[in-house]
Amino acid sequence: MKKSTISACIATLFLLSCNNDTKETTRKLPERKAPKNISFTKEDSKDWFDTNKNNSKNLDIAFAVNRVDKENFTKLDSVIIPTDLTGDREFYLPFPFEVSSLDNVDKIIVFSYPAQAFATYEYGILTYTGPTSMGSKIHKTPTGLFFTNWKAEETTSTLNDEWQLKWNFNIENIEGVGFHEYSLPGVPASHSCLRLLEKDAKHLYNWADQWVLADAETVKIKGTPVIVFGSYNFDKPKPWLSLVKNAKSLSIKENEVNTIIKPHLNTILKEQEKRKASQK
């Protein structure tokens, strides 16, 4: 075989190898259905609900946009509704679909206090998002980096034994802060926890990882990283009401998330490596 032919074969094998590597490492965005346009109108809550009560998809989007659950929806005087409800829920919530600083992070949950919304990312790709009701003006939710600790399908609040918390996942053991299913009234109303719709609480409960303890007082492996960021202006109207005038008013840009992630990234990756090493 001629040297030129051998060189060509080696080059071809190299390219094939590179292409295979690319196929293995390329992360594709989930298939999503986008609405034709994103704009919002103000509607009477009872009238709109009566018209759409049998349309689960429309209700799911309306609940998310108004940060409210079914029980509280019609208690609101008015609600904001997308003019085009044909898209998937993530198109109506504020998080970016990709975050480059998270390319090497296998799992993370991000909660926005000002937007009252959360998102999960896997290797920089948005995989799930929904509404939340965080701490009230008196009982604010702490911000910063946390990790999921222990979980329970149902547990009793340490503040009030009448509060039953379903699909609870603790993120701050000393203060008893966690995310769980509970009433979403359309405003931040919790005693510092992060309230979720039932379907969202179940999803995070099954998706996130628990801590691993070396003994009763020592954490060996931390769970899934959780970042809570921003602040909520309790003295102004609900921020999502501004979507009627400007559909992008709540949008969180990728560079904003990158800035929020940056101070915590080394810690997140370090803990991730510990978990991976323990699984080998």
Anisotropy-based shape: globular
Biggest sheet architecture: 5 strands, mixed
Distance between the termini: 45 Å
| Rg calculated over all Cα atoms | 22 Å
In total, the number of strands is 13
Helical fraction equals 25-40%
Query: In DSSP terms, counting alpha (H) and pi (I) runs of 4 or more, how many helices?
Result: 7
Task: Give a description of the structure.
It contains 7 helices and 13 strands. It has 280 residues and is α+β, with helices and mostly antiparallel strands. The strands form 4 sheets. A 5-stranded mixed sheet has the order 5-4-3-13-6. Strands 7-8-9-10 form a 4-stranded mixed sheet. The protein has a two-stranded antiparallel sheet with strand order 1-2. The protein starts with a helix and ends with a helix. The model is unreliable at 1-25 (pLDDT under 50).
